[in-house]
Amino acid sequence: MSSEAFVTLATNDNYAIGAMVLASSLRKVGTQKHLFILITDNVSDKIREVLNKFFDTIQLVNLLKSPDPKILEALKRPELSVTLTKLYCWKLTQFTKCIFMDADTLVVQNIDELFERQELSAVPDIGWPDCFNSGVFVYQPSEQTFNNLIEMAARDGSFDGGDQGLLNQYFSDWSTKDIDHHLSFIYNMTLASTYSYLPAFKRFGKNVKVIHFLGSLKPWYCSYNASTKKLNTFIGNDHAREFIEKWWQMMVDNVHPVIEQLNIVGSMSSMAISNPNQPSSSITTTTADDDRYQAWQQGQMDYLGADSYDNIQKRLDQSIHGQQ
Ligand code: UDP
Ligand code: GLC
Ligand code: MN
């Protein structure tokens, strides 16, 4: 077994779907490294079955919640209080070196060279570049580090309520100590930044290796048409559109066939997926209102009600036949 691994996390079925797309993208660029996913109780059995097809190891861990969810509420991202669960990645001491990647990232070029970097290497955060973004980082598993992090979380909390605040508190000399620990932006290109610095994107964009769909609009909430290979409706920048369409194409080509093969209808209720081979078929989400949207974000699908397969089918028919 390779002693190096790519590690991700999913605490619910939505993020698990993101993780499947991430794993497919890693294999597509030819990595031979171990693919590892941490999951929690909330991930359904059916989705676990699918995850098995994409990851070498699935490990169940306890949900770790932020001691300070109030801060996240202020940031309007209460769902991120569970991201402290990421810390479990330090316990994977069967590996000598790992790269953690958020489940909302997509790899478009091989990044195995990152295993030559040392802990903790990461990309500056676009919101506050003296901090690193914890969506992609190189680290060295260690029980000791895990214990230290937990101790710090209990003692000091996290300034953003999630893992990123805590990790920046712990690796506090990241921005000053050693420039080798700064990774190029191409390893964690957060989409929002392309809005603000388009000329740089035009110059360097072709070098990008990892796209990070940071923020509350995740690709899996967008509505996609598998025939035209375009998003159905999208308000935003052309680059964001292009990358979300890339994510969806990976979904349609590599993930959807596996879900379909396993005939997992229940899990499909979170993302209405029609047969991409049918003409003018549409892949769409069923976020009818904000409440459902929020519930989805928390991984609470209403399998028998609003999100039931029948309702999804109805929505699909409406979008295919143009009825309201
Ligand atoms: N995550 C999860 N369940 C959640 C929220 C987050 O499993 O309900 C994990 C997942 O791996 C995700 C990461 O924590 O990619 C960080 O959250 P997110 O990507 O939503 O944060 P952002 O990058 O948008 O700030
Ligand atoms: C950030 C990171 C994400 C992290 C979250 C909570 O925005 O992108 O990976 O989980 O903050 O700290
Ligand atoms: Mn993320």
Automatic annotation (TrEMBL):
Gene: LOC113795658
GO cellular component: cytoplasm
Keyword list, A-Z: Cytoplasm, Glycogen biosynthesis, Glycoprotein, Manganese, Metal-binding, Transferase
Task of the protein: Self-glucosylating initiator of glycogen synthesis. It catalyzes the formation of a short alpha (1,4)-glucosyl chain covalently attached via a glucose 1-O-tyrosyl linkage to internal tyrosine residues and these chains act as primers for the elongation reaction catalyzed by glycogen synthase.
Pfam families linked to this entry: Glyco_transf_8 (PF01501)
Cofactor: Mn(2+)
SUPFAM superfamilies: Nucleotide-diphospho-sugar transferases
InterPro entries found in the cross-reference section: Glyco_trans_8, GNT1/Glycosyltrans_8, Nucleotide-diphossugar_trans
Upper classification of the organism: Eukaryota, Metazoa, Ecdysozoa, Arthropoda, Chelicerata
Subcellular location: Cytoplasm
Annotated organism of origin: Dermatophagoides pteronyssinus (European house dust mite)
A GO MF term: metal ion binding
Main location: cytoplasm
The EC number(s) this enzyme carries: 2.4.1.186
Lineage: superkingdom: Eukaryota
Membership in a protein family: Belongs to the glycosyltransferase 8 family. Glycogenin subfamily.
Protein name: glycogenin glucosyltransferase
Swiss-Prot/TrEMBL GO biological process terms: glycogen biosynthetic process
Catalysed reactions, as listed in the record: L-tyrosyl-[glycogenin] + UDP-alpha-D-glucose = alpha-D-glucosyl-L-tyrosyl-[glycogenin] + UDP + H(+); [1,4-alpha-D-glucosyl](n)-L-tyrosyl-[glycogenin] + UDP-alpha-D-glucose = [1,4-alpha-D-glucosyl](n+1)-L-tyrosyl-[glycogenin] + UDP + H(+)
